[in-house]
Amino acid sequence: MNNKRQNHWILACSAILIAGAHAKVSYGSVYPDTPDQLWPDGIVPYEYDPDVGDDQKCCLEAAMEIWEAEAGIVFVVRTDETDYVKVQRNTVGPNYPPPVGFRSGDGGHVLNLNTWCDGVPCGAESPQQKFGLVHEVGHVLGLSHTQQRTDWDQFIELNDCVIDPAFVGNFNPVTNSLAWPRTQMDVDSIMSYPVCVFSICRTNNCPSPPQDCPALCGTSCGADFDMCATYSFKEPLASIWNPLRTCPGPQAEGDICVGQRNHISEWEKLVISWLYPPTTNWRFVEKGNPEETEDGTFYYPFELFEDGADDVPAGGTVWVQPGVYGSADGIYTKAMVVKGPLGGVVLN
User: Fold this and answer.
1) pLDDT tens digits, 291-313
2) In this structure, are residues 324 and 300 in contact, taking their beta carbons and an 8 Å threshold?
3) Is the pTM of this model over 0.85?
């Protein structure tokens, strides 16, 4: 029971059930298991190689601004910082060679643009071009591909037969990573892959014997979609996402489909804001937190609700993971917002 009395609120007698605000089965991000791989204070210095054109700079900086708008992240032109992002073009290999995020002592962390947005006037880039770079900048900030979470096999099945051997590493689980929330996969994430990317069938170059793979699949998978796809969904994701496995025609900002390159999901907005908090007026609570350290951050949440409520600044927010939190009853005289983004939170 939640009774307001002269700026107090009292939790007593019965339990408060906090329901989640989002019903769709699509959440979270895959992020490093240690904050040491986050850019200190959210400051990301970068510099361009001389052959990076103004059009590519414009496109990349538009992608940077997408992330800056969601979290306490600032991209700054490098002066003399030892560790920074080295932006270059016309190279081979991954756009942001692993591991993701900040790597102390690595000097210039290479971000390969290749021909991304090359020759595209500033502001004229398509959603796929701009948000393709949003995806790559997500790696810079520490996010891994959704299909690389350590428990991927609970949500998808890999079609090993059609994964191009040169790119199989893009499907290997990132062992030193965590995922939020723990029990669902964010298909809508900008870090998810389209289901035919790195399929050998896209180049009409399937190996023999022919029964192992379709002989021809075409460049967009076409009628042999299920045989061409590098992965498929398990339930309940299959029922939700099979009708959205591709975007019809050119994508527009906000289109929802598997591997979209046109928006950041609502859940990864939350996660990036917790990894790089824009303010200090929130605390995180997670029942069963295995960490010895508890300071109310996303990495080191309080295990008890009352600790989060006591520590959060006045007017701040206490984010609560699902669970039953006993001994939470009492009189709370501080103004605060309590949110259970996944629901299933009981305070008693």
Assistant:
1) 889 999 999 999 999 999 999 99
2) no
3) yes
